[in-house]
Amino acid sequence: MTARWACPTELKVRTNIPAKAKHDFMPPIGATHTPDGQAHQPSRDRFSRDEAPTMLDCWRPIMFNVFFSYSTKDLEVVSPIRDSVQAMGSPVFLAEYSVKPGQSLPERIDRAIRSCDVFVLFWSQNAKDSAWVPQEIGLAHGAKRRIVPVKMHQGIDLPGFIQNRRYEKLYEDPARATYRIKKRIAEIGNAKQANEGLVGVALFLAMLGALGRG
Fold it and tell me: Is the pTM of this model over 0.70?
């Protein structure tokens, strides 16, 4: 069977691959395979084993809300990443597209941040100078949202209360950084879904217990 790499929207896996050779089968980013197993569109970058997409990463639906905090001056860079994340099934709040004419921008942003599961910060000098982004960070921090920082260029420190957090370096390798952003979002979303599943099971068992006592 021919294997084709198209995660996260599509993945077909070649069968009968020896366990010791599985990591050797991992293609470069964006590569496709022909029946003879040769990779095309090679890249010098390969995912490390802990970064490799799994069937779970690629097929599990990610049904939760993501908020992108950014400067409108960086929209051209941020917008394609938003499209890529939404392809996983996660609605992304991007003010440029998510606020409809006539709606209150501050109210929509406030509501979107408080209801989001992941707050992705695209940090740049433009964002630092923005009248909106620092306020959005403070609101997300106060609401205890999960913050994923992304540095868009070198020479700029993260805001004080998140400066010690690990961040993605979009300026070094945009493709790899985008993949890692999506992976982190998927990890947070899957953990939330698993927790909600446990809560649902507990409630179901409690209901059965109550019916049994009745």
Answer: no
